[in-house]
Amino acid sequence: MDKITKNIQLEEDQMLLREGIINFPSSPGEKPQLIAGQCEACGDIAFPKKIWCGKCDGKVMKDILLSNRGKLYAYTVVRQAVPGYEVPNILGVVKVPEDDELLIMAQIRECDLKDVFNGMEVETIITELYTDFLRNKKVIGYAFKPVTVN
Amino acid sequence: MRDVYIIGAGMTRFGLYDGRHLPYKTIYELGAEACMAALDHAGISHRKIEAAFCGNGSAPPNCCQNITAPIGISGIPAFNHENGCAAGSCALKHGWETIANGMYDVALVIGADKWSRPPGMSQMTKLLAVPYGMNLNQDVAGAFGTALLALIANAHMNEYGTTKEQLAKISVKNKRNGAMNPYAQFQKEVTLEEVLNSRMISDPLTLLQCCPQSDGAAAVVICTGDIARQYTTKPVKIPFITESAGKYKGMEGSLSQFKCFQRASKMAYEACGIGPEDLDLVEVHDDFTSLELVAYEDLNLCPQGEGGRFIDEGLFDFGGKCVVSPSGGLLAKGHPIGATGVAQLVEIAWQLRGECGKRQVEGAKVGLAHNGGGVGDGYEPGAVTVTIATI
């Protein structure tokens, strides 16, 4: 997991949403993936990862990569947000194949407002999410976009 | 455990005490006004209060002490609670436990908050409200509260066929109730069309389906049975208060129900030997219409997925199965964060004593308050309380 952040070059005016939650592609053929935590004792998966397990006594959580693809479980079009976020934007909750109880909140990008629907196939992307203007930096993080069929 | 009773309940009108909408008042003035109303309602001297508990989210440290000092209550144990929108009911639970356990005999429970700011400060307020880097989902959403409740509405519509009209009808009902409540921030009825056509905030939730920003305070005097009988022939008993917190994956992969509401209400029903069919009125945490909708189902007032139908059939209206949010709820009465949980009990105490005038639920004997707040682990609220009251 040492490639976690080394494959992203940030500009002067950019910052990461969080360290250690996105596996950045190391070659053009690779896709970005979210890094979850899995309890070594009971196998429970959490994103963002926990330090200790919330389901058992386990205290060792290993990093695992979640699938790059998932399904949009629920969505809303956010038309009013705190400063720094462009509106309207689509905010969704995505389910990935690894764990049906895992709900991943994420912005849905590269999708027309009228084209979004429950059950839509989506894939993880890396994009600029918002501007943190306490630090005056553009925040780079994860989002999902519709899977386009070629 | 000893039985605990409410013998006095009072509150300020909720609204914006910013000098434009309502006369300017500080949070301490609002708190003191509510305390004096509750103490006068009980007919008990302020000098009898042995401990004070206050729910609050916006004041500097020691809100409780600063509220009570000007009305001659000081030098007693005073406790301040922050627990998001459930701060008030958590203060009540703390006070209730101390009376039940024999620590004190008479206590004052306060909820007070003030969110209006001078003009020009609103951007700063927003910045202060959401510090980046605190909670991943808050950072990703940029509008966590509204967006989350919109996602819940979307999931419920998708899973059960609930319609946006059914959601909007919840606001119509609560604003109709609020129009009969002189303590409500909004005392005006709205039509279904007005709710649906108001500005979209986060689909499908329109502006009139979101509670307002509010200032205000509420207070109750709680005590043992022996003391209650000295002061009133109509003591309101609080047989139990449960508190639960959202847990990671507690929703088991579904946004259409809050398992922490279900846990808290099940515990409360079992502890009191009371079922949802016994309830005459319920004050729910309707900060958004979708939260009232899921509360119907999670509190077991109707079967899972049938909240929309119950609304269509008016079963939560006056004359229905059980009156939900007779005060107007957070949507009409307003939502001064820390005051809400206490104000719910003020309404229930007044209702059970038959003192609610035009919005009186006839013959009300059993009430339930549901108060949820903050961001917990995962998507559920950080704190949820269910309080049952009887007379």
Give an account of the 3D structure.
With 150 residues, chain A is mainly β. Chain A has one domain. Chain A has strands at residues 14-16, 22-23, 33-39, 45-46, 61-65, 69-78, 89-95, 104-108, 121-132, 137-146. In chain A, a hairpin with a 5-residue loop joins strand 3 (33-39) and strand 4. The mean pLDDT of chain A is 92. Chain B folds into two domains: 4-117 and 214-238, Thiolase/Chalcone synthase (Peroxisomal Thiolase, Chain A, domain 1); 137-210 and 240-390, Peroxisomal Thiolase, Chain A, domain 1, CATH 3.40.47.10. Chain B contains 14 helices and twelve strands. Chain B has helices spanning 27-42, 63-68, 87-100, 122-129, 136-141, 144-160, 164-178, 192-197, 225-231, 259-272, 289-298, 307-312, 329-333, 337-352; strands at 4-11, 51-55, 78-81, 106-114, 200-202, 205-206, 215-224, 236-244, 281-283, 323-324, 366-373, 383-390. In chain B, the strands form two sheets. Chain B has a ten-stranded mixed sheet with strand order 3-2-4-7-1-8-12-11-9-10. The chains are: A mainly beta (150), B alpha/beta (391). The interface between A and B is large, with 42 and 40 residues.
> Overall mean pLDDT score of chain B?
94
Helix content of chain B: 25-40%
**Radius of gyration of chain B, taken over Cα atoms and rounded to an integer in Å:** 19 Å
Strand percent estimate of chain B: 15-25%
Q: Specify the oligomeric state.
A: heterodimer
Radius of gyration based on Cα positions of chain A = 16 Å
Low-confidence stretches of chain B: none
Total separate domains of chain A? 1
Architecture per CATH nomenclature, i.e. the level-2 architecture of the largest domain in chain B: 3-Layer(aba) Sandwich
Structural class of chain A: mainly beta
Which stretches of chain A are poorly predicted, pLDDT < 50 over at least 5 residues?
none
